[in-house]
């Protein structure tokens, strides 16, 4: 990654974390980075493209650290512990940015990103399988699919909890606790002798495939969202009128872009409408300022 590209990513992450994705303009990013808009567009086609590259940056940085763990002389249990700690530590470094993403759901899913998300899912699943088999042996093989789902769910739930904690968290203590609960689960499954629910080979069927992740946005989806929000703001005449004009214009066979842009500017400070604004901009290919 080139130095200027990394600078733009660092500055954007800082601003997105402070102001939110929708509230941050490309102009603000280039001003903070001390570069021109032309320099920005040399590396990123749009603000959405920048956000996708930030996600990819996270992925490659995390993967590099996990590969380093694999090179160390660790027992299977120690390796899984370090894996969990590494993930939680990396997440904590970008807590404010990830909270923004959780709140705004700003990440635009295209085919390239969908493939990366699926790749991460497959890599995580394979790592969990190898780790759990190494720790507990072949006796857990009939339950490996269920154990992976449970471990993944526990990890994700604690991840969301850690994002909103202000106190310092001991990630080694947390990882140890999670593995102790896996000990309990394995012991219970083997003792109980009940049939497994999810065979390992069916795990990938539970993941959204690329064509589902990249579902095309339709005008009817926008209109549905507008009508839904209109009900929430029926008490506010100005906002209701703005949404009503927006609905009417988008319904037209040939919507007038300046009218849509004008109505969006009226909504720019209304947080509840940010996802809708983003979808409208994406549908009509409206550039960020």
UniProtKB/TrEMBL annotation:
DNA-binding region, residue intervals: 25-44
Domain of life: Bacteria
InterPro entries: DNA-bd_HTH_TetR-type_CS, Homeodomain-like_sf, HTH-type_Tx_Regulator, HTH_TetR
An annotated Gene Ontology molecular function: DNA binding
Signal peptide as annotated in the record: none
Matches recorded under Pfam families: TetR_N (PF00440)
Domain HTH tetR-type: 2-62
GO biological process assignments: negative regulation of DNA-templated transcription
Keywords: DNA-binding, Transcription, Transcription regulation
Protein name per Swiss-Prot or TrEMBL: Transcriptional regulator, TetR family
